[in-house]
Amino acid sequence: MRRSAFRRSRGDGPFRFASTGAGIVLLAIMAAIGVFLVVKAVPALQANTSHFLTELTWQPNATEPVFGIGALAFGTVLSSLLALVIATPVAVGVALFISHYAPRRLASALGYVVDLLAAVPSVVYGLWGVTFLVPFMLGPSKFLNDYLGWIPLFGGDTVVGRSMLTASLVLAIMILPIIAAISREVFLQAPKMQEEAALALGATRWEMIRMSVLPFGRPGVISAAMLGLGRAMGETIAVALIFPATFNISFKILGPYGNSIAANIANGFGEATEVGRGALIASGLILFLITLLVNMAARFVIARRKEYARAAA
Amino acid sequence: MAKQIEVAGLDAYYGTHKAIEGISMTIEPRSVTAFIGPSGCGKSTFLRTLNRMHEVIPGARVEGKVRLEDQDLYGADVDPVSVRRTIGMVFQRPNPFPTMSIFDNVAAGLRLNGRHSRSQLDGIVEESLKGANLWNEVKDRLNKPGAGLSGGQQQRLCIARAIAVRPQVLLMDEPCSALDPISTLAIEDLISQLKQDYTIVIVTHNMQQAARVSDKTAFFNLAAQGQPGKLVEMDETSKIFTNPAEKATEDYITGRFG
Amino acid sequence: MTVQTGIQPISSARRAKDRLVQVLVYLAFALAVIPLLSVLWLVVKNGIGRLDMEFLTHSMRNIGARDAGGGAYHAIIGTLEQVLLASLIAVPIGLLTAVYLVEYGEGGRLSRTISFFVDVMTGVPSVVSGLFVLAFWILVLGMPFSGFAGALALSILMMPVVVRSAEEMLRLVPRELREASYALGVPKWRTIVKVVLPTAFTGIVTGVMLAVARVAGETAPLLLTVFVTDSINNDPFNGPQMGLPLYVFDQAGRPTDTAVDRAWTGALTLILIVMLLNLVARLITWWRSPARRR
After folding, report:
1. Which of A80, A235, B142, C211 has the fewest other C-beta atoms within 10 Å?
2. Closest chain C C-alpha to A189 CA, distance in angstroms
3. Which chains touch C (3 or more CB pairs under 8 A)?
4. What interface predicted TM-score (ipTM) does this complex get?
C-alpha cells in the first residue's frame, strides 16, 4: 500500500504481515527440504565405503556400508524417458482430439474423462500393474523380443513381465493426463486468426493444425512434457510394486532388471538401519535436485512462452 | 482467372440464430464489389459464406445457393477445402503466420498444393509480392519473420499470400480497418490494380473507401437488433452514392444513422 | 503456368493424410481411455467382494497371515485424520499466500520469487516431502512416527495446489468490487476479508477439495512418516497410524490371496473417496459458473 497522509487503518498491518509471512513460510519450506535432507544425508555418506555417485550396489545396512546412486539414477532416468516417449505422442493426440476434433458438446466431458486418469491414486496403478499388466505384458514382450530382438533395447535372453518396459508403461499412463491437459490448454489458445488464415488458403484440418496450432503450441507441449518427466521421476509406489528391484545397469528393457531412486526408498525403508535411512535420504536428495532442475527448466520455457504469446497478440 | 459469382436465396445461421436472410445477387468478374451497412448487418457473415469460411465456426451453417460460374459451392460433392483454395480471403486484421519467414508466408499456400521447384517458388513469391506492392520493401529480408513488418506491410503480405495460389476470386473483410491512412491508401491502390485479374469483393465500414475503390456497391441492413440482416439494394457505386433507390440507403450514406 | 478453371479438388494424397491424422487422433484418445477403463473395471470387479461391514468396521489386528476377513477401519480413520490435519495446515498458509500474491505482492521481486517456487513446489516428488518430514521431524527433532507427521508431509504437497487455485479465484474477483469497497472507506484488509474472499469462496472450496483429493491417495510420504500398523490408533499425534493408500500397498505386498483381495477392496474404497471429492469439486465449479463452460 502506498504511503498516504491519512492514518493507515488498524488491522491492515497484521493482515499484510500474515499473508506476506505465509508466502515466506513457503519459501522457507523449500529451503528446509534441501537443508534437512543434506543434514541427515551427510553422516551416512561419511560412513559409505564406496563412491556414492558411481557405485551400483546398495548395501547401506551392512557393517561396512557400500551404496551408490548409479544403478538407481540410471533406472530413474531410463524409465522416465521411456514413459515420456510413450506418453507424449498419445497425449498430444488426446489434446488435439479435445481441442480440434471432438464434437464441441462432448469436448469438455471427454477432457474430464482424461483428467480422471490423474485422479486414480498411484498405489492403485501399482496394484493394477502388478496383478494385471505384469502378466499381460509377457505376450507383447515376447513378441518384441522375437521379432525386434536385434534392437538392443528389446534384446536379451530372458523376457519377463516385471520389466523396465512394464514400469515405464505404467509411468506413461500416469503422466499422460498432465501432458494432455497442458497441451490442450495451449492448443485451445492458438489464435483463431491464424487458424482461419490457413483454412482460407485451402488447408485441410491437419494442414491447418500443422501450420498454425502446432507451431504456436510447441513451447507449451515441450514444457508439459518436461513437467511430465519430473512427475515420472518422482513417482514412487506404482513402480515400487512393479520393479524387480535389481541394482545393475542394463538397457534390456524386457529383462528382469529395473529400479529407481523413489522405488528403492519405498522398498528399502522398512528394514533400513540408521545409516540405511541416511543413505535413502541421500538418494532422495539427488532425486529432489534432479526434479527441481527439470521443473525449473519447464517453468522457464513456459515463462518464455508467455512473452512470445504476448508479442504475437 | 476471374469468375462471376451468383448467389440465390442465401440464409446463414449461428446455431439457431439467423444472421442473414434471403440474399440474392450477382458479382461481376474483374470488378470490385463493396459491401456496406451498419454493424451487425451480416455483411461479413455473407462474405464468409462465399468461400465456405462461415461453417468453420462451430454451429454455423448455410442454406441457399452460391454459384461460381456454373458450379454450386455448396453442392454435395464439393469439398470446402477446395472452395477456399479457389476463392482467396484477406482478413480484418493482418494474420501472417508468426513462426514463418516472409518468403514462407507467401509460399505457404503453394506448398499445400503439390510440389514446386525452388526456382518456381522463387518466381511465384516474387511475382506475388510485386503484385501486392511489397516486393521493393522486403526483397532484401525475405528470410526474416513476417511478424516484424508494420501493420500495413503485414496486410499486403497477407494479400500476397492470398494471390500466390492464383485464386479466382479475392474476398476482403475490412482489410484496412486496422491500418493507418497511408497504409490504407496503399491497399486501395493495390485493389484497383488487382481488379484487372481478379473478382474482388470487399467489406468496408468506410463509405469513402467504398466510393473510391468499388464498381458496384451492395447495402445491407437489419430491421432491428437480433433480426437477420438483408440486402437492401445493389447497384453501380456512383448510383448508390448519388441517387439510391431506397430511403434506408440514402439515410445510411448521408450519415443519418449507422 | 496452367490456367485453372472451376473448383479444383484437392489431391487424394492430401485428403488421405488428413484422414490418417484424424484416425490417429481418435486412436490416441481411445488409447488413453483403455487403461482408465481397465483400472476401474478391475478395481470394481475385484474389490466389490470384500466391501462389507467387516471391512469397514474392523482393523487387521489379530488377523493371521492366511486368514480371510479383517478390514481397513484403522486405515480409513487414519486417512481421514491425516487429510484433515494436512488441510488445517495447508489451507491457511496456501490461502494467505494467494492473498499476498494477488493483493499485496504488486509484482515485486518477492512475489515473483514466491510465485516461481510455488510452481516448482508442485513438482516436488511426494516421496521427497516424506523424506523431508522424516529427516526434520522424526530424525532431527526426535518426534515419533505418527499420523501428524504424515499430515505434515501431505500438507507440503497440498500447499502449492491450494495457492494456485485460490490465486486464480481471487484474480477473478472484479476490480470494481474492490474499488467500490475502497470508495466507501473500507480498509484494504477488511475489503479482502469481507468482500474478496466471500466472492471467491466457492472457487476456493473447489480448489481445496481438489487438493485434498490429490493427497488423499498419496502413499509414499505416509510410508516414511506414519509407519505401518494393523491396529486402530485414534490419536494422530502419537504412535504409528495407518492410511488407506498405505493399507493397499501393505496388503498388495503380502503373498496371500486374502491379502490381495483386501488390497483391491481398499483400492476401491480409496477410489470412491477420491472420485467423490473430485466430483463434488467439479460440480461446485460447474454449478457456480455455467458461463465458463467450454
Report:
1. B142
2. 13
3. A, B
4. 0.91
